[in-house]
Amino acid sequence: MTAVAAPAPVARGTGLVGTGALVRLALRRDRVMLPVWLGVQFLLAAGSASSVKGLYATDASREAFAATAGNNPATVAMYGPSTDLATLGGLATWKLGVYGAALLALMSIFTLVRHTRGDEEPGRLELVCAGVVGRYAALTAGVIVALAANLVAVPVVGVGLMSGGIAASGAFAFGFAVAAAGFVFTGIAAVTAQLTEASRAANGMAAATLAAAYLLRAVGDTTHQVSFLSWISPLGWTLQVRAFAAHPHFWVLGLALVATAVLLTTGYALSGHRDIGAGLVPPRPGPAVGGPLLRSPLALAWRLSRGLLLGWAVAFVAVSAALGSVAAGIADFASTAQVRDMITKLGGEQNLVDAYLSFAMSAAGILAAVYATQTVLRLRTEETSLRAEPLLATRVGRIRWAASHLAVAAVGVVGLLALGGVVAGLAHGLRTHDVGGQVPRLLAAGLVQAPAALLVAAIAMFLIGVLPRLSTAAWAVLGAFLLLGEFGGLFKLNQRVLDVSPFTHTPRLPGADVTATPIVALLLVAVVLTAAGLIGLRRRDIG
Question: What transmembrane ranges does the database entry give (predicted)?
Fold first, then answer.
């Protein structure tokens, strides 16, 4: 009988063994998504620099803009303080600062969680760790890839700004400023990945922290009494660097590095106190027998998605209240022709207040589309996690199972947009003493965004049914729509290019005329894509 040698155990103190192999694997798996994230950053930087250079070519025009923009709480809440708007670089990166940092933060969160908790949840990491792989190798690989992607974003953003005529020194300094936010949220994701057993929950907690950071910065930048809140937010640190000032505050980057080090140390410490596949926060056990509200696929889909919907509802209330409350003061801000032109391009051809409200509601439509995409992609998660197969082994058919998640997504989209419209209408109506008139107007402005958001959900369903391995590309499609629909006017893109986005065809309420043709067309396309996705799901193999 031939003796079989036992696998050599991993020596103590070698918890990082195998990290290099896992880094190469992670880079291979992310060979498409990471370039997409970075490409979006380049396009935003280049487009912002080019558009601002055309609109504000003279020092006088920039000074006039700076004199008015910094005094309006609406724009300060959205984009940050206007300390460097008199410079071309400061004006070009004013809108890009917060949102560019937020995009890198999301990239870091998704990357880190994907290669840690995302591999633990279905059991893949346990198989990998059965070989000669150290305990901390997966976490270290995820951290290395996420941090490296943020470092690559520095020249990407810098070159993008330079292509629009921005000086290299300020452009690269700004690149470091936005990358610093990505560093911090890599650390935050390293912590949340240790707390829960589900990758969705880990992503959700980190994303909620990002939303809280945005709100802290917005409140701190607009309220002098609590201005210290901006210094608590990692997004606030991005703006405090002041890359285009005469004397940039590069020492602020040290805060981000210290925070990253503390968070990563915490993540490693927590990782050493749990088993692979387990979270530090144990899941709450459910009843042995499901109640009457869990005896249908629709009830199950609602149970799985209700927490996500509740979180989005809270976010919609907070953001809609903030945007609606400052709408009345937008006319004071837009005291120059250039500013009026910018707001009109963002919001439509109406008066300035209606144009601003239209822009706010279109942003709500984008957020609703994000929720819808998350909810529909839950189908693919249930499938790849092998939870759908036992359900489909019963009398539940595939179409009924998928339709339950689609129904929850559709109801959630309509409910969130209605909630956002009502809250914004109340906030704006209280400021203008016209609650009865503003609530219906903004409710309609919110609901009219639903067809475009539902079309995005239909695209996700189509990918799940026809191209399941590419289902996550729904996020890339949504990102492309965001760029075209929200920034295409500022970038002076051809109208045929802008028409690719469903949000371009949405009526710009309030203030514009409503025609049924684009709404019906969007709904018909959504129905066709959904039907094609359901047919594809019915015909292909599960898994």
Answer: 32-52, 96-113, 125-154, 166-189, 201-220, 250-270, 309-335, 355-377, 406-430, 442-467, 474-494, 514-537
Distance CA 78, CA 238 (A): 14
19 to 13, 22, 140, 196, 220: CA distances (angstroms):
14, 5, 7, 23, 41
Query: For the segment 18-33, what is each residue's pLDDT rounded down to a tens digit?
Result: 888 899 998 998 888 8
Q: What are phi and psi of 9, to 5 degrees?
A: -70, 155
Query: Six-digit token pair at 324?
Result: 């609606």
∠ Cα 212 216 218 (to 5°): 115
Give CA separation, 280 vs 15, 220, 267, 467, in Å: 20, 33, 11, 35
Contact, 40 vs 483, CB < 8 A?
Answer: yes
Computed on alpha carbons and rounded to an integer, the radius of gyration of the chain in Å comes to 24
Burial of 26 (0-12, 13-18, 19+ CB in 10 A): buried
3-state secondary structure at position 131? coil
How far apart are the C-alpha atoms of 75 and 356, rounded to whole Å?
10
Query: Do residues 270 and 280 lie in contact, with contact meaning Cβ atoms separated by under 8 Å?
Result: yes
Question: Distances in Å between the alpha carbon of 124 and those of 106, 130, 276?
Answer: 23, 10, 10
- How far is Cα of residue 177 from the mean position of the Cα atoms in its chain? 19
| The pLDDT value given to residue 517 | 84
* Token pair for 527: 């129905």
Q: What is the pLDDT of residues 333-390, one digit of tens each?
A: 554 555 555 555 544 444 667 777 777 788 888 888 988 998 998 888 888 877 888 8
For the chain, the first-to-last Cα distance in angstroms comes to: 41
Residue 171 CA: distances (Å) to CA of 82, 129, 157, 210: 17, 42, 7, 24
Domain ranges across the chain: 17-279, 294-543
Token representation of residue 187? 């650390």
Copy the structure tokens of residue 275.
């088993």
What pLDDT does 337 receive?
Answer: 55
- pTM to 2 decimal places: 0.76
In angstroms, the CA 254 to CA 273 distance is: 29
Q: At what angle do helices 199-222 and 297-326 cross, to 10 degrees?
A: 10
Half-sphere exposure of 329 (CA within 13 A, CB side): 18
- Is 194 in contact with 275 (CB distance < 8 Å)? no
64-72 contact pairs (CB < 8 A, 24+): 64/335, 64/336, 64/338, 65/91, 65/336, 65/338, 65/339, 66/91, 68/332, 68/333, 68/334, 68/335, 68/336, 68/339, 69/94, 69/333, 69/339, 71/332, 71/333, 72/326, 72/329, 72/330, 72/332, 72/333
What are phi and psi for residue 509, nearest 5 degrees?
-90, 150
Q: Which residues contact 541 (CB under 8 A, 6 or more apart)?
A: none
Q: Is the peptide bond before 283 cis (omega within 30 degrees of 0)?
A: no
Residue 225 in contact with residue 301, Cβ under 8 Å? no
